[in-house]
Design goal:
- The chain has a single domain, classed as Porin.
- It has 1 helix and 11 strands, in the order αβββββββββββ.
- The protein is mostly beta strands and 220 residues long.
- Strand 7 and strand 8 form a beta hairpin.
- It has an 11-stranded mixed beta barrel.
Length: 220
């Protein structure tokens, strides 16, 4: 485990050296602490920290999540999220509710899933409150034979129901690894693209963002 943590640290520092003082890179760190109960239920506490540019804090999130697995091929979840966007003239705090339904299927060593997420606000503070988002995401994960590493790719769209327009997309490529029975670590690259508004003549003036994500999970 010490070796894995050391590798994560080196990648983290190297990424910071390359991406410091730019406007197109970010580092997102997510910690997940999960407790399973009543066989098919689990509760998670998820703090997340999002760093931009020269590793200054851009946003931090606290999430409480309740999950339920009624069938092997279906997961349901509801979350409350408290977002704090760090601003020069004072932080902006928003609240959001998130509802997920995820269908799962296993084919040989592949695990595929389709998640539909409904939320009353963008998770990164891009939208003003009062918007409603539908966020479909498809994910494909591969279980390497005789290995604890699991690479995956996914793609997610953000559909603003109020404006009836797709605002952005996220492409992820990453890898997870179990460390014993209780721990899991992961790294991913994320490309976040912004789309022009519906019927807009010019392209969105927001830059695409390249993101390095670091995950750590602990199950009680």
């Amino acid at each position: 485990m010490k070796r894995v943590l050391f590798i994560l640290f080196i990648l983290f520092v190297s990424y910071g050296t390359i991406c410091a003082k730019t406007e197109k890179f970010g580092t997102w760190i997510e910690l997940t602490f999960t407790k399973k109960f009543l066989k098919d239920f689990e509760f998670s506490i998820i703090p997340e920290f999002r760093l931009q540019d020269d590793f200054t804090m851009d946003e931090y999130i606290f999430e409480g999540k309740l999950g339920y697995e009624p069938f092997k091929y279906l997961d349901l979840a509801a979350s409350y999220r408290l977002n704090t966007n760090v601003k020069t003239k004072g932080n902006v705090i928003t609240h959001s509710l998130v509802f997920d339904a995820t269908g799962k299927i296993k084919i040989d060593r592949f695990n595929a899933s389709l998640r539909t997420r409904f939320s009353n606000e963008s998770d990164s503070g891009d939208n003003a409150s009062g918007n409603y988002l539908l966020r479909p995401r498809v994910k494909l994960q591969y279980n390497i034979r005789k290995s604890k590493f699991e690479p995956y790719i996914s793609y997610e769209l953000f559909h603003n129901l109020k404006k009836n327009s797709i605002e952005k997309g996220r492409f992820d490529a990453g890898i997870n690894r179990d460390l014993g029975k209780h721990h899991k670590v992961g790294l991913y690259y994320r490309l976040q693209d912004y789309f022009p508004e519906k019927n807009a003549i010019i392209k969105s003036d927001k830059n695409s963002i390249n993101i390095l994500g670091i995950n750590y999970g602990f199950k009680f």
